[in-house]
Every structure is written in structure tokens, then in C-alpha cells.
Amino acid sequence: MKGVILHNIKSKDVFKGILTCLLAAACCVSMQAQRLVMADVVSQQLANGKKSKQEKQLFCQQDGRMVVSIKTTEGESVLLTDQYGRTEAYNPKTNTVMFDKKGHLYASVDEPLQVFLQRRTQDMGMESYGFKLNEVLQEDGKYLKKIFKSTEAASHCAKVEIVYENYLPVFMAFYDRKDKVINKIYYAHYDFSQRFVFPQRITEISYMGTKDSMIRLDVYSNIRVDVYDEMFDYKVPADAERKEMP
Amino acid sequence: MIALVAMLAMTISANAANYSLDESAINEMFAEATVSTSVESQGILDGVDGQTRTLIAACLEFTGLAGIGIHRLVLGTEPINCLWYFITFGGIFYIVPTIDFIVELIDLLTGSGTAYLNNPKFIMWL
């Protein structure tokens, strides 16, 4: 009799243990599940008193895949890229796609939304560009400044500074080999309402111009996290005419 | 206009130590700027010979519009190349427009001045 009771208890315990393990495994899988972020972006550029404007929608996945839907005066273009820079630019109107296999032009890691989604704010992706952390400083008891130096002798940009306030990047500066600033980026209007913290206003000032600096302003809105849209799985039609980028 | 931009630029730089920008100044600069339009789409260069177009493109390099590939539209190219100039921060941080200007100048001085017309490539000198 005792033996029968012990056998029954043992079976129940085993069953509960298996069930607990399965639930734990399911929780682990869901925590690592693909994160999706999409946003509307209005991007403006200003140079020498002339401005241009572009409206686009970004669809970013945590594995680095990114789809950009761009509205132009000629209609809509779709840009697909990944973290390695394998980029395709598709024009639905002409059914042509220009592709860049070498990854020299544009990669998803160049997009701030992707950098924040992949939680690369500790270096803003600079290490993937060949920069190494050289120094960490505290300023005014409020800011943390990280200085990265380029490991590539031929790189035009020799130094990058990233300034954090409350552990969030608020400023980046790029310097050439003569320690002259060539680019500044300001991050502002952080959105804390969702599980995804991101600056909704990014201003970039480029000092590379011959006479005037160039200002680029990106304003993000309608940020949605882990909400599926078919654009995340966008694929260029198989019958599109393919042209390779030089 | 240049004085206003310089003044606003100084205002912007004054806040650099605080690592924040005067956003109202930036918004004002954008509001006052005129919209850049494609010169070719207006038909202004219809009937203009190739050498003149190359000269105009070289001059446009000094206006800062080269950062969004306007000079390439003057020469004749795929409109998507403007997108590449735009998303690579002015043609890979203005490196491509700078070399564009040099090769245009060389072509005007030593060649026919038409070598880079209607070139569909993003980097026209490759």
C-alpha cells in the first residue's frame, strides 16, 4: 500500500516538474523572441538656405534586418538592408532594384532606431566601425563622456566622443585627424512610454561642406514596438530588373 | 541671409558645452529655408549643351546642394542617386561630391566637358 502511494506521489511530482520546466523554457523563448520596431520619420536636410524633405517608414528587426519605405515625388521606393550592408533599393513603379552586395553604402546599423533596438548604445555601434574605447570621463557630475579612437590609419574620422546623460546618449561628435570637428549629432525628446527608449528628435550638423554646414533633422513619431506589419517581411518581386550598384 | 545663418550657428555652438541644441533656432532655420527643387525636372536645362551643364554642376558644388546630389541631376543621372547622397550623409560625408567637383573641373579644362553626362552610377568617376 505504502509503495503504491509513494509511486503515485512520485508520478505527480515528475509531471509537475516537467510542466514547470516546459513553462520556464517557454518564458525564456518568449523573452528572446524577435523584437520589432516601426516608426514614421520625417527627415529634413538644410544646406545654404535650401531644404529638402523626405518622409519614410522604418521597419526594424532585432536581427538587423531593416525595411525602409520612402515616399518620393515619383512615388514610393523601398530599401531593404541588413547589418552587413547588403542593400537593395526597389522602385515599384519601374519594377527595378539596385543592389549593393559589398555593403559599402548603407547598413541597418547606420540607422539610430536599429542601434537602440539592438541595445548598442554603450558605443552607438562605433566598435563595428573600427573604433576602440580610449577614455571615459565624468563632466559636471552629470555627463559621462566616452572617447573612441579609430584603429584604422586610413580612416578620415580619427576620434568619436559620445556623451551620456542618465545613461542615455545625448551627443556625439566626430573629429578628423587634425582634431577638427566634422560632425555633431544631438539626441533629444526621449520617449519612455514604451518598453523601447528612443530619442524622437535627432539633429546632425555636418561641417564638411565647402562654404556652409549642413543640418539634418530626423523627427520620429508613431513608434510601435512588437506590433507586426507585413512590411517587416517585404521581399523584392522575383521578376524585378536587377542592377548592381558600382 | 548668410549673417542670419552665422548668427544662428553661433547660438547653436554656444549650447554645445551643454550638449543640447536650441531647437527653436533650428526650427526657424528650416522654416525660413526655401525648398530645394530638381533643376532638371523644371526643364530649365532643356536644350542646354553638355559643357554648360557640367559647368553649372561644378558651380552647384559650392552651394552645398552637392550633399543631396543636385549636381548629378543637372548632369543627368538616376534620381535614386540623390537618395544615396542623402542617406550617406552628403555622399559619404561629402567625399564623393568633392571628388565629383575635381573630375568635373578636369573634364572641363582638358576634355570635352561632357564625360560625366547621363551617368547612372552613384560614383560617376569609377
Model description:
Chain A is mainly β and 246 residues long. Chain A folds into 2 domains: 33 residues; 209 residues, Clam (outer membrane lipoprotein receptor (LolB), chain A). Chain A is 15% helix and 48% strand. Chain A is built from 2 helices and 14 strands. Chain A has a 14-stranded mixed sheet with strand order 7-8-9-10-11-12-13-1-2-3-4-5-6-14. In chain A, a hairpin with a 2-residue loop joins β9 and β10. The N and C termini of chain A lie far apart (83 Å). The N terminus of chain A is likely disordered. Chain B has 126 residues and is mainly alpha-helical. Chain B has a domain of 60 residues. Chain B is elongated and about 50 Å long. The chains are: A mainly beta (246), B mainly alpha (126). Chains A and B meet through β1, β2, β9, β11 and β12 of A and α1, α2, β1, α5 and α6 of B. β2 of chain A pairs parallel with β1 of chain B.
Write the layout of secondary structure elements.
The complex is a heterodimer of chains A (about 250) and B (about 130).
Chain A: H1 2-31, E1 36-47, E2 50-61, E3 66-72, E4 75-81, E5 87-91, E6 96-100, H2 112-117, E7 131-139, E8 143-150, E9 157-165, E10 168-176, E11 181-191, E12 198-206, E13 214-225, E14 241-244
Parallel strand pairs in A: 6-14
Antiparallel strand pairs in A: 1-2, 1-13, 2-3, 3-4, 4-5, 5-6, 7-8, 8-9, 9-10, 10-11, 11-12, 12-13
Chain B: H1 2-14, H2 23-32, E1 34-35, H3 50-60, H4 70-75, H5 80-87, H6 91-110
